[in-house]
Amino acid sequence: MRQEESVNYMIPFNIPPYIGTEEEKIGEAIAARKISGDGVFTKKCNKLLEQLTGAKQVLLTTSCTHALEMGAILADIQQGDEVIMPSYTFCSTADAFVMRGARIVFVDVRPDTMNIDEKLIEEAITPQTKAIAPVHYAGVGCEMDTIMDIAQRHGLAVIEDDAQGLMSRYKGKPLGTFGTLGCISFHETKNYSMGEGGALLINDEDFTERAEIVREKGTDRSKYYRGEVDKYRWVDFGSSYLPSELNAAYLYAQLEQAEMINDDRLASWNRYYERLKALEDKGVIELPFVPEGCVHNAHMFYIKTKDQEERERLIDFLKKNDVHAVFHYVPLHSAPAGLKYGRFHGEDRFTTKESERLLRLPMYYGLTESNLEHICDTVKEFYKQ
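Above: the chain's sequence. Below: its structure in token form.
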């Protein structure tokens, strides 16, 4: 079921995915009289995500932010530890570790993928370094072979921020399954949504038991429901990271159709690329780059303009022609909290410059060909002028 649109009104940047069976699933959850967490639909989502990713265990969470927080706890991040990550990411990537007392070490990005430059990670390592948090921007995998080699040689944890990468692969392996832990988002802007939500991918079985405890407010409640203990107790610290069954039911409807949604988005991504390639060939804009060995999930389609001033003019031009386009992150190292809780290692050659050029075009499940054509024609018209 595709969402209907018209160029007679503003083409939105995003429409949350909806396939038409969400209400039916929510109704089943309500009828079961179990709407708090870890009911039938939570377990179904966990199992289906394990099948889609190959992770040893998946736990649905209330957000990707909370999955990252759980990752920081499980990796035993302590006061004074350092965590290496790109500055071009959402603040949640850093927040999860800052809340544990860590200091963030930002590393420059590659200009081709906007992912962390794997060649700069090793020189940023100090005796205080505890973990690396690569971010798979736009669902395009970081160079995980290099990152995992560095981590293993230096005894570092790898916690993948895979908020944008469900259904993407690096050298045949799903993103989020290389590091000790992976974190996925199901926010309404993601390819699959439960409004607010996420998941923790556990790739090391040593973490499975404690992950359940941390997620259940520090109790062994999961063991109690499996009949492994006669009562559940407070055994560790944790928080309430468990989503409602209603959210899980909404998500499950989409996960059942994960391939269909993925194919739809990829078709739109490919149409964008084909229609705007001539502008790149002329040197007017740059299009997304997907390295060999990476399979992406069409999480977003962006272009890069000459500079920030041109980007702002293009955003305004698109808006006047009923298209809502947006830029993305302001680099964290330049933000007040970034200056307080982190430092940039080395030279900022690309992070700021490339972030100021990047513009995201509308991308969502059900984007019609006529609206996509209108968007591309508008971009072309701007550059004709």
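The mean pLDDT is 96.
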